Amino acid sequence: MRTGVWLVGARGSVATTSIVGGLALRAGLAGPTGCVTELPDLRGPALPSFADLVFGGHDVATTPLSKRAEALADTGVIPGRLVAALPDELAAVEQELRPAPHGGTQADRVATVVDDLTSFRTRHRLDRLVVVNVSATEPAPRPHPGHADPAALRAALAGPDEVLPPSSLYAYAALLADCPYVDFTPSTGLRLPALAALAEELRLPYAGHDGKTGETLVKSVLAPMFAMRNLAVRSWSGMNLLGGGDGATLADPAANAAKVQSKQRVLGETLGYVPQGNTRIEYVEELGDFKTAWDLITFAGFLGTGMRMEFTWHGCDSALAAPLVLDLARLTAAAHAAGHVGPLADLGFFFKDPLGTPTHSLAEQWARLTDFTQRLHAGLDGGHDHVG
After folding, report:
1. Residue of 11, 3, 19 whose CA lies nearest to 325
2. What is the mean pLDDT of the chain?
3. Torsion on CA atoms 28, 29, 34, 36, rounded to nearest 10
4. Which among 56, 72, 134, 356 has the fewest CB atoms less than 10 Å away?
């Protein structure tokens, strides 16, 4: 199944690492470490192979992809040998990157994105095209009457107002171009009633939000442990220090608030209550594409005995996120081929704030993911409509 992967934010660190990784896997220059879909429980014929993936995308930045890859190699995010071995492949992807549309009405910009997507699909004779948002986190938008239903949205976009945030504009264009949409960020994306209704109307699946790569991944393992042992979590506080473009974006208070809200949701929904404490995110330029998270948990056991736990996570977000981007593109393409419509709740394993998923327990999410994928491989899953 020849599958396009259209990356919104295509020159960013996550997208560049995903592209280099996908090209390296296709060329047999690297192994699939970190790619969940290559585990025995998930591997199978329903998923497009890495050799079937074709990359394109949009970005406001203009730095050549090869230069972005070289910069990431210099900081230890990706191996320099891979960048040196893939100059022709990176140049070919460079030809498929388009500038983010600007000017005119939002309807004009949507039309430009739709044209870019349909041209890319036709040019490469793709069976499927999945749009994946890996751009910078945006603040939550102000409510607008156009967010309510597709007809009101179409009318509003033709006017002078900025009705949709960028993530939702791309989501809207993806739907109009018959493309499933995946939001790897905590941005709004398809979380507007008008867009959700349009996805149902056009019979398209979508997934999100906010890839689960570091501190929240650990929370989704530890929080169920406390709940299942009937231990009372009194407080859970975290400090995240990160650099790079994502860190610079999150220095903006509005974007920071959107990210923190996504990171905190796992605790209340897993424990059944919200302990004292919060998560703080601070930009430290020196850290570059790496980040450090430190968490302090206080809890009470039998007879109220007070105890504490601490953990530190130091990792490279791009290297953790990129294989998941490839996983999500493959899984979403397979779900589209099987006729799934609406939010793909069974992909909640990958997200901090998953759509339509009743559990944040990583073990339960894994069970749902493996069952979903095995049904796809067995041809037993002919798709289904989302029931709210």
Report:
1. 19
2. 91
3. -10
4. 356
DSSP assignment letter at 347: G
107: confidence class by pLDDT, cuts 50, 70, 90: very high
**Is pLDDT above 70 for 252?**
no
Question: If DSSP codes are grouped into helix, strand and coil, which group holds residue 205?
Answer: strand
Lowest pLDDT segment from 63-67, 277-281, 302-306, 379-383: 379-383
Q: Do domains 3-210+319-378 and 215-315 have the same CATH topology?
A: no
What's the rounded Cα separation, in Å, for the pair 276 and 228?
20
The domain locations on the chain are: 3-210+319-378, 215-315
Q: What phi and psi, each to the nearest 5 degrees, are found at residue 310?
A: -130, 150
Instruction: Calculate helix-pair angle for 215-228, 253-271, nearest 10 degrees.
Output: 20
Nearest in space to 92 (alpha carbons), one of 65, 68, 58: 65
CA distance 333 to 166: 23
pTM of the model: 0.91
- Above pLDDT 70, what percent of the chain? 92
Residues 6+ apart with CB under 8 A from 148: 193, 194
Burial of 172 (0-12, 13-18, 19+ CB in 10 A): buried
What span, in angstroms and rounded, lies between the C-alpha atoms of 203 and 59? 27
For the stretch 128-139, pLDDT in tens is: 999 999 998 888
The larger pLDDT score, comparing residue 78 to residue 283, is at: 78
Closest residue by Cα to residue 320 from 289, 296, 357: 289
Which among 212, 216, 225, 308 has a CA at the least distance from the CA of 271? 225
What number does CATH give the domain 215-315?
3.30.360.10
Distance CA 116, CA 107 (A): 14
Tokens of 363: 């073990």
